Every structure is written in structure tokens, then in C-alpha cells.
Task: structure prediction
Amino acid sequence: MPSSLETLVAFSLATAVIIAAPGPTIALIVANSLSGGLRVGFSTIAAVLLADVLLIAAIALFFESASGWAQANWTEISLVCAALLVWLGTQQIRKAASGETPLASIDAVSSGFLSTALNPKTLLFFGAFMPQFIDASAPIAPQALLLSICFVVVSAPIAASYAFAAARLKERVERNQKLLKLTRYLSGVTLIVIASVSLVSAL
Result:
């Protein structure tokens, strides 16, 4: 387990500050909530947190080999991930342009999971962030599990507050057909922006 209660508290506070600060993930949650409502927003949050937990576990268990491989192939990884995110964003924009119904939960799950799992900056962030809270002299797996649970417990309410706010705003947006149509493009555009930022930072 992490060396002390102080370590868990420090990890929780750091997580809260990072999640609360608006960034690409929060932007996607807000965009999806505006487009599809609270259920779609919560679906996005669940997918994002699942991807985060899997990344935390992978980094904790395979940090040395994974970080070395990622550094050696960083540009190639970034190009592939950015291309996939652009494709996903383009598909959502195409659906919006064709007049399909607002974002469905399955689309929210795929966009939330893939935008997190395929964002190289997420991998880089956790690779730099997680080791500070892991005691290398103790078994790694139990620590990774505990930190993952802590991350979800802290992150979920913060992300949910953004989803609630965006879903409430959606009720007003629905009265304006032009704004309603615009919200249906937001998820796709957000994915393309995430891909662009990740790509620029890697080149």
C-alpha cells in the first residue's frame, strides 16, 4: 500500500486540482452533455474514468518497459492516436450534419474512452504523476488498485458537476434551434482539437 495516509491525501488533493481545472476531458464531457443531456454526460464520464483506471494500472504494473517503449516511439504513437481521434471526431460531425438524433450514449462511451486512451498526453501525464505516490519497495499492484479507486472517487463528483451544469444549460439551448444544431457538432470538434493539441505537442 502507499506508504502513509498522507500519501493518499496528497494524491487525492492533486487529483482534485487537476480534474477541476478545465481541459480537453472536461470540454468533451461538457460538449457531450450539451448535445445529449445528463445520461450522455454520465456515459462519457464512466468511459473516461475506465480508460484512466486502465492507464493507471498499466503504468503502475509495466512502468519501466512501457515508458521506455513510449519514449522511443513517441512521434509514431502520437500520429496514430491523433489520426484515430480525428476520424472519430469527423464521424460525429458527419452524423450531426446529416441531421441524425443528438449524441447517443454509445457514441459518448466511445468518444470518452478513446479520447482518453488514445491521447498520448494522458499516458505521459500519468507516467510522470503516478510514480510519485507509489512506494517502489512495496508490492505495486495493491498500490495501483488503491490509487485507482481513490482517483475514481475524487474525479467522478467533479466531472459530474460539469455534466449537471451542461445538461441544465441544454434545457435552455433546446429552445433555440440554431444553438441546438451547433451543440451536435461540439463533440466531434472537441475530439479533433484534442488530437491537434496532442499532435502539435509531440512534433
